[in-house]
Specification:
about 500 residues; 5-stranded mixed β-sheet; 4-stranded antiparallel β-sheet; 7 helices; WD40/YVTN_repeat-like_dom_sf; Esterase-like activity of phytase family protein
């Protein structure tokens, strides 16, 4: 029996699904709970403990962002670190957790006759730490209380810093003079990740600035920080988010900055979306968020408006083509919140011909929102169809990526990968889960949308580097298609 969901309607069939019938189906679920370094440990090689007593190599939060990197490889992005473990409210319980992303091999195997068409085994293969070659601004800890062990909080600068490597961290006091967009600030709250077409770099969006930064994929070193519209920045900074909110009349809401980031398939345009309305928009456009496009070559930016439907905010955006996107709209309910999930829905939006709103506000802003249809997928309903109660649906469904195509019931389907942020507290929020959904061109056609596969250079698995160097030394080799057809039967 195969249970599938089509636009929020449950269908149950004991037979192969006809190719003409449009549907979005759950194909597999996998969890990542550790690595070769041990349970709940990543491969950063970091030792010692953070200010709250947790290990520096703690594994978690990986569903804040997810990106496909070719083959079976995905990048999974943790946010600012384990601040769900209380120890010091003067810094919002943030610690000097070094910003990073995880390389994960996703082994998707067909399981004929199984409860789901595929089984999924994620394996962590690499951890990349994010840093700058030039100095960053850190906090001193002065007047901000103590660590969990009772000793003074101390500097926010990681002990691993060197004369040419300065690591970004999640500590909320790691900032200097100026507004929140100061590019030398060391604090980073990563929320989304995308891979450049050549595979040599990644783009990361953040909530503290907000920032969009580009990092070298092999070293983790900062390449550039894009200048975003000034209306997104807050002028008065504080290590405590609630204080930042009360101390500013414009800019992003604390901890609700650029939550989502897309890259168009041609690699030319980054598209970021804010999690919540800007402070100056909240009073008169309380359901309207801002989308920011960035021309990668010229750095030019434009703003567009997005109106929420039933969710309290947006967690991710992923590109279907150069003007249509899937947007992850959700509430904060579900596993981790101690409540029942209600809204985890994906909508199709189109920015083609949309009104530029950088100079708009209030009703004019809300009235100029991009076109929107759906939901394309209701995740709570989809998981419920497979016996996952709404109390077990993760509260923070935050990562979206397209993977390679697969063959299901004799027809080729595209794959959509969905991940959750478990806030580094698996005992409360469950493990880092990855949910794989299959869909066809017909599913998108119902919303007037099409999927254009992104071309991206192959990113080799760490274990295959030696073989590739020996096998291809002196020879050129072609970049692989980002989503090669995978006939898994």
């Amino acid at each position: 029996m195969r249970r599938v969901v089509s636009s929020g309607v449950l269908l149950v069939s004991m037979f192969a699904v006809p190719a003409a019938k449009a549907e979005v189906a759950l194909l597999a679920i996998g969890s990542l709970t550790g690595s070769s370094a041990g349970p709940n440990a990543d491969l950063s090689g970091l030792t010692g403990t953070l200010e709250n007593g947790l290990p520096g190599n703690i594994l978690g939060g990986m569903g804040s962002g997810i990106a496909y990197a070719g083959g079976n490889t995905f990048y999974a992005l943790p946010d600012r670190g384990p601040n769900a473990t209380p120890y010091n409210s003067k810094v919002d319980d943030t610690v000097s957790y070094i910003s990073r992303y995880q390389t994960v091999n996703m082994n998707l195997t067909a399981t004929p006759g199984g409860a789901l068409p595929f089984s999924l085994t994620p394996t962590l293969t690499k951890t990349t730490l994010l840093s700058s070659s030039t100095p960053l601004t850190y906090g001193t800890g002065a007047g901000l209380g103590n660590k969990a062990d009772g000793t003074p909080l101390g500097s926010g600068a990681p002990a691993q810093n060197t004369s040419n490597t300065y690591y970004f961290t999640g500590r909320s006091d790691n900032y200097g003079p100026g507004n929140s967009g100061n590019p030398t600030n060391a604090r980073l709250d990563p929320e989304s990740i995308r891979v450049a077409p050549d595979g040599k770099s990644v783009y990361v969006s953040d909530e503290y600035g907000p920032y969009v930064r580009q990092f070298d994929n092999s070293t983790g070193k900062l390449i550039q920080t894009f200048t975003l519209p000034s209306n997104l920045n807050v002028a008065n900074l504080s290590p405590v988010g609630a204080t930042e909110i009360s101390g500013n009349t414009s800019g992003r809401t604390a901890n609700k900055g650029m939550e989502g980031l897309a890259l168009t398939p041609d690699g030319k345009t980054l598209v970021g979306i804010m999690q919540a309305p800007l402070i100056q928009d909240a009073a008169n456009a309380s359901k309207t968020l801002r989308i920011v496009t960035i021309d990668v070559a010229t750095k030019a930016t434009h703003e567009y408006a997005y109106n929420l439907t039933t969710g309290s905010g947006v967690s991710e955006i992923v590109a279907l083509n150069d003007h249509q996107f899937l947007v992850d709209e959700r509430d904060g309910k579900g596993l981790g919140d101690g409540s029942a999930a209600k809204v985890k829905q994906l909508f199709v939006i189109d920015i083609k011909g949309a009104t530029e709103v950088s100079k708009l506000s209030g009703a004019a802003l809300a009235g100029a929102a991009v076109s929107k249809s759906g939901p394309f997928l209701d995740i709570v309903t989809a998981l419920g169809a497979h016996g996952i109660s709404n109390t077990q649906v993760p509260s923070k469904i935050e990562g979206l990526a397209f993977g390679k195509d697969v063959t299901v019931d004799g027809k080729v389907e595209h794959t959509l990968w969905v991940a959750n942020d478990n806030d580094f507290v698996p005992g409360t929020s469950g493990p880092n889960n990855f949910y794989v959904f299959g869909f066809t061109d017909a599913d998108l056609a119902k919303y007037g949308a099409t999927l254009v596969p992104e071309q991206i250079a192959a990113v080799p698995e760490p274990s295959t580097w030696a073989m590739m160097i020996l096998g291809f030394c002196g020879l050129g080799f072609l970049a692989s298609r980002r989503r090669a057809k995978a006939a898994l039967v």
